[in-house]
């Protein structure tokens, strides 16, 4: 390894440590509003009478008499952090790394929003009873 590669390697690990120290605050700061608004947008297009209420860290979406709360665990900030760890610890050129980060974060965001939306749509149809029985 030459000096430039060692410097970039150290910088990548320093970024990982810095982002992990503050309890993943940056991931939740960025991805919570994006997740909540995308879920609300999808639910409002797929169902009638959807209302979004945000108070502090927890956002609630009212849907057909039920409340879907988007808590920090639903946003999955730690999963974004693990994807970042995977990306920054894998050797690749910077241009490819940036594209890879956009792909990883974007695809995970889409899958996560679809997961929350599908579960929120299933609850008014009676699937919450099945979920309570399995717990």
Q: Can you offer a commentary on this structure?
A:
- It is a single chain.
- 70% of the residues lie in helices and 12% in strands.
- The chain is elongated and about 60 Å long.
- The longest helix is centred in the C-terminal third of the chain and has 29 residues, at 94-122.
- It has helices at 3-21, 25-46, 72-75, 77-88, 94-122, 127-134, and strands at 51-55, 58-63, 66-70.
- It has 135 residues and is mainly α.
- It has one domain.
- Mean pLDDT across the residues is 87
Count of alpha/pi helices: 6
The outline comes out as elongated
Low-confidence segments, ≥5 residues, pLDDT <50?
A: none
Q: What string gives the helices and strands in order? A: HHEEEHHHH
Please report which band the strand proportion falls in: under 5%, 5-15%, 15-25%, 25-35%, 35-45% or over 45%.
5-15%
Radius of gyration: 19 Å
Quickly give the structural class: mainly alpha
Summarize the structure.
The chain is mostly helical. It is built from 6 helices and 3 strands, in the order ααβββαααα.
Overview features:
135 residues, mainly alpha, 3-stranded antiparallel β-sheet, 6 helices, 70% helix, elongated
Draw up the topology in text:
Elements: H1 3-21, H2 25-46, E1 51-55, E2 58-63, E3 66-70, H3 72-75, H4 77-88, H5 94-122, H6 127-134
Antiparallel strand pairs: 1-2, 2-3
């Amino acid at each position: 390894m030459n000096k430039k590669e060692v410097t970039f390697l150290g910088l990548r690990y320093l970024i990982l440590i810095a982002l992990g120290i503050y309890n993943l605050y940056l991931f939740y700061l960025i991805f919570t509003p994006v997740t909540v608004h995308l879920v609300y947008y999808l639910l409002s297009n797929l169902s009638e009478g959807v209302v979004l209420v945000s108070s502090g860290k927890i956002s609630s979406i009212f849907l057909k008499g039920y409340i879907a709360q988007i808590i920090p665990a639903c946003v999955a900030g730690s999963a974004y952090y693990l994807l970042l760890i995977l990306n920054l610890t894998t050797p690749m050129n910077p241009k490819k790394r940036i594209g890879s980060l956009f792909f990883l974060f974007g695809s995970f965001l889409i899958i996560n929003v679809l997961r929350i939306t599908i579960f929120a749509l299933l609850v008014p149809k009676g699937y919450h009873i099945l979920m309570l029985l399995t717990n």
